[in-house]
Specification:
- The structure holds 2 protein chains of 2 kinds.
- Chain A is mainly α.
- Chain A is 79% helix and 0% strand.
- Chain A is built from 12 helices and no strands.
- In chain A, α1 packs antiparallel against α9, α2 packs across α3 and α3 runs antiparallel to α9.
- The radius of gyration of chain A is 18 Å and the shape is globular.
- Chain B is 41% helix and 22% strand.
- Chain B contains 10 helices and 9 strands.
- In chain B, the strands form 2 sheets. In chain B, strands 5-6-7-3-8-9 form a 6-stranded mixed β-sheet, with helices on both faces.
- Chain B is globular and about 50 Å long.
- The C terminus of chain B is likely disordered.
- Classes of the chains: A mainly alpha, B alpha/beta.
């Protein structure tokens, strides 16, 4: 079964979409949307460095994503605005990534694969890495669920209950880096942030509790991945972009169908 | 022994002294109110007591297994997070359904259990946060300007509620307030703060202390401050409160 590229693609896309959709709820709640962008763009630099130093792309992207997280923390503590810091880092990552890629020997990387992903190139080994990452992310979120929610609500409320919001933030940041690292081959750096934000945003108007929002977001994310994959086969369109298009359509439908009392 | 004991507390932000040499202790079951002008360190002191702010210097001793119920000044509820009142009371620890119901009944908002937090009015949100703070048998309730944005009858009812809660649960209460006249009747002890403790004691003692009068005025001047306060709460949108307070301060101080 795992030698059929279509099955591999479906398992990879479904897994990445699942982890991204769950984590994406926190990204939306905490207004970290550009955080996903910054980490994702910086991932390109990670790809170039991995190829340059001949280490695994997953590892390289993970390290660069974590470095971005630390830089964000450092710079915001020095009084820069969060949106400014993220804007600087997102474009810095993209620019340095593009420059680094151009320094690699000719033909060692197809840039297009990493900008928009190449889900059909996923092999069984990738699948293990992806699902390993997915379970780790879901496990982290489930384990820290109450603490994450409380510190998302209010820092002082969390502190007064003996929860350290900085630790919860760190857990989210690490999980985000992990999702970006496993998603890069599937949807590419340009579209990762959309898998984080769109399913969660589509789930919001139809839900009344954090738990149902996460569950619905997961369903929408996985549904978009599988549906998009199928449509991209049928119409011979790029898989990553088609997946995002399906998610956007679901987002529009949910805005129309919003619960009357959910706002 | 005391529930909380603070010695030589100092808090500095960016080279600026917010609190200097503050000694404070809290006894079982007493209601302590902290008053003081804007920027006098009231919220910083409360955040230190709650454990949300690490002091620059000084010692804090808390009774073993001290349970604090905290009501922040205002919860900025992001509408992107769907959250019912019922679910909010289960953060961070889940509680029995019966306990949650009782807590909501105690603060008079049992009918709001299924409402979304982001849809509550200011007064409703305060009562819901108070209900949450009473869960799990707290030894002390800590409230940061709990009646901010409530009208006169609303804040009077809120203070009555706090006294009732103290009686029912047997907890101590520490709160910050701007409403001097209400505070005086509802507190066992008043602390007048302005970077350091100016004066403290029973409400009658404090109102006659020269340090207090220097801060809040006396006679007609003080009455004017109180009158202006009432006027403000009845007619003004609470968004304007900060502005009004600085204006008031220049009047009084």
């Amino acid at each position: 079964m795992l030698d059929n590229p279509l099955v591999l693609a479906a398992l990879a896309g479904g897994g990445v979409a699942l982890a991204a959709a769950v984590l994406g709820c926190f990204v939306v709640w905490r207004r970290m949307a550009y955080y996903g962008d910054a980490t994702a763009h910086a991932a390109l630099l990670g790809v170039a460095l991995s190829l340059g130093f001949s280490v695994s792309i997953f590892g390289g992207v993970l390290v660069v994503s974590i470095m971005v997280a630390l830089l964000v923390t450092l710079l915001t503590r020095r009084g820069q605005g969060m949106d400014t810091v993220l804007g600087v880092l997102a474009h810095a990552g993209l620019a340095f990534g593009l420059v680094a890629v151009s320094l690699l020997p000719e033909g060692s990387i197809d840039l297009h694969d990493y900008l928009t992903g190449n889900i059909m190139s996923v092999d069984a080994g990738d699948l293990w890495v992806i699902w390993g990452g997915v379970f780790l992310v879901l496990g982290l979120v489930a384990w820290r669920w109450q603490g994450l929610l409380t510190s998302t609500l209010d820092n002082d409320l969390a502190l007064a209950s003996g929860i350290n919001p900085k630790r919860e933030q760190l857990i989210l940041t690490l999980a985000l880096a992990l999702v970006v690292a496993v998603a890069i081959k599937v949807v590419g750096v340009l579209l990762i942030a959309s898998l984080l934000i769109i399913p969660a945003a589509a789930a919001r108007p139809l839900t009344r509790s954090p738990e149902t929002m996460v569950a619905l977001s997961a369903v929408i994310g996985v549904g978009s991945a599988l549906g998009g994959l199928r449509l991209s086969m049928a119409f011979d369109t790029p898989a990553g972009a088609t997946i995002v298009c399906v998610a956007v359509v679901l987002f529009i439908l949910s805005q129309i169908a919003r619960l009357p009392a959910s706002r | 022994m005391s529930l909380i004991e603070i010695r030589n507390l100092n808090v500095r932000f960016g080279g600026h002294d917010v609190l200097q040499d503050v000694d404070f202790s809290l006894e079982k079951g007493e209601i302590v109110t902290i008053v003081g002008p804007n920027g006098s360190g009231k919220t910083s002191l409360l955040r230190v007591l709650v454990g949300a702010l690490k002091p620059t210097d000084g010692t804090i001793k808390r009774a073993k297994n001290l349970k604090i119920g905290y009501v922040p000044q205002k919860l900025t509820l992001d509408p992107t997070l769907p959250l019912t009142v019922r679910r909010f009371l289960d953060l961070p620890r889940r509680n029995k359904a019966a306990d949650v119901r009782e807590a909501l009944l105690r603060t008079g908002v049992a009918d709001l259990a299924d409402r979304q937090m982001s849809q509550l009015s200011g007064g409703q949100a305060q009562r819901v946060m108070l209900a949450r703070a009473t869960l799990g048998q707290p030894d002390v309730l800590m409230l940061d300007e709990p009646t901010q944005g409530l009208d006169q009858p609303g804040s009077a009812a809120f203070y009555t509620l706090i006294e009732d809660l103290r009686r029912d649960i047997g907890c101590a209460v520490v709160m910050i307030s701007h409403e001097l006249h209400v505070v005086m009747s509802a507190s066992d002890r008043v602390i007048c703060l302005n970077g350091h403790i100016c004066c403290q004691g029973a409400p009658e003692t404090v109102t006659s202390a020269p340090e207090y009068r220097a801060l809040f005025g006396t006679g007609t001047h003080g009455a004017l401050a109180i009158y202006r306060h009432e006027h403000n709460h009845e007619t003004c949108d609470h968004d304007h409160l900060e502005e009004h307070e600085s204006e008031e301060r220049s009047h009084v101080g």
